[in-house]
Design goal:
With 599 residues, the protein is α+β, with helices and mostly antiparallel strands. The chain has 19 helices and 23 strands. Among the domains are: 33-50 and 62-196, Lambda Exonuclease, Chain A (Alpha-Beta Complex), CATH 3.90.320.10; 267-342, CRISPR-associated endonuclease Cas1, N-terminal domain (Ribosomal Protein L15, Chain: K, domain 2).
Amino acid sequence: MSAEPKPITVPLPEKATPAKATLNRPTVPPDYLPARMVNEFVYCPRLFYYEWVEGAFVHSADTIDGAHKHKRVDKQADALPPPDDEAPVAARSVTLSSEAHHVIAKIDLVEGDGTTVTPVDYKKGAPREGDEGPDAWPADRVQVGVQALVLQESGYTCREAVLYYAKTKQRVRVPVDADLLAETLAAIRNAKATAEGGVVPPPLIDSPKCPRCSLVGICLPDETAFVEARRTFDDETAQLWLIEPEARPEAEEPPVRKLVPARDDLRPLYVAGQGMSVGKSGDVLRVKNRDRKVVQDARLFETSQVNLFGNVSVTTPALQALCAAEKPIAYFSGGGWFYGMTQGLGLRNAFLRAEQFRLAAEPTFCRRVASVIVGAKIRNQRTFLNRNHVEPPRQALVRMKALADAAARASALDELLGIEGMAARIYFQHFAGLIKVDDEALSTFSFEHRNRRPPRDAVNALLSLAYSLLAKDLTIVAASVGFDPFWGFYHQPRYGRPALALDLMEMFRPLVADSAVISAINTGMVEPKDFVRVGASVSMQPSGRKGLLRAYEQRLDALVTHPVFDYRVSYRRVFEIQARLLARFITGEIHEWPTFETR
């Protein structure tokens, strides 16, 4: 057979324009632009946009270290004497603004004598090596340029600025001349225009700045550029070629640097038990039982989320601290049904959600995304059966491959629902072949077909809880990226259903949820004694829930090779990467949404 890829015709929807053009909407950023943001803009316009327009910020070792070094400077804000006072000046942590240029600066130190002053800014790193010795970095130059502007507008004479680099303990002087002021004003104008334009700047290409950037997991510079480079797009016929990786020449695919951390150091907190409560003591979350005895402590800044099962209460101080730190709180019933969550304000940029709503109303776009979702889910189900079944069913694997191919050709959502349903029936018909336990446990973990609400056997009880956990995690990821989790493309909106989270989780059902269930059963993390039959339904004991949670969290921590970028990351990271790539696709930054499919 020929390896020539087949084009899939994707007609543009009527009365619809490409997403990149529609995102070019004016925004209204805050009145005053901070000097630090001008620094960020010169350093990397994309970083500036994420921090200033979208309000995204992630601490790294560098930012924490830099904040620590500023503590002494920011400990006390001094009053700056009026410019006509001839007394010596040594004022720390001075904040001034400019009405003429609508910028604001917090100056670490202002020193001088009389009306002539010098702003001093402290930097964590080292100066760059110039031809005549240590020199200021361009981004640092414009930052002290803004400081000079606000000092001059306040009536002071400012002939030079000083940058103190803590790593080498060196002071670098920057003349405040016409060149610096022109450079600074141009940076201010360009930064404001970028913020008001409503379009995120393109990523830096193979830049040495990216590896140490705290927002690299949000920006995904190499991943975004790599996905777009894979695309061949014919504007006249609107045909998108979905080229298989093995069919592409190696020269067309430069390696993707692994810039995102492999694992997330933060850990979720699970609290289950009637009458339990979660409070706060300093920076510690304190879990108490109904007798008010402490049963567990968790550091707030080492916690990624809090999950509450059943009748568990949260104190107001704990709730406020979690919201302020953008740590979501997820609520489950005692049986594991995901009710919803509480979170902080999240991202401030509403334009991604606006595009999400607009494109969700376009049937062609929804069908296009849905076909990708369904195809990836079926292929992952097929791979999971093929790898883990005691005797992989050949006919089932052939049929599932055909259904995955049919998903790419489906012309409507109803047709995709039928394809997905047929694949699910085949998959669950052979699901019992994945369970490998002794004869004594087999009676408890026998499986005939998928059922729920309520589950009528132990395996279905485990699957239902695993799917609830997965829906919770993808709801949190969708919200953190800036989506509305309740408005999907394949799953249609329904009251109380996180439709977009369900879209995102489809391809991960077999790889994460089903895998966690099978692992919990086959390794003895859950046992027959962990289940109770009540009438026609089966429920889990607390010990059974604990066993599945353990298996689920272990699966999320497992490292897996990303099939597109070829680096190893945990499933937690994969969730975020896939959601952010979907955001790039929706905003028109990339024209293909790569799925996650195990090889």
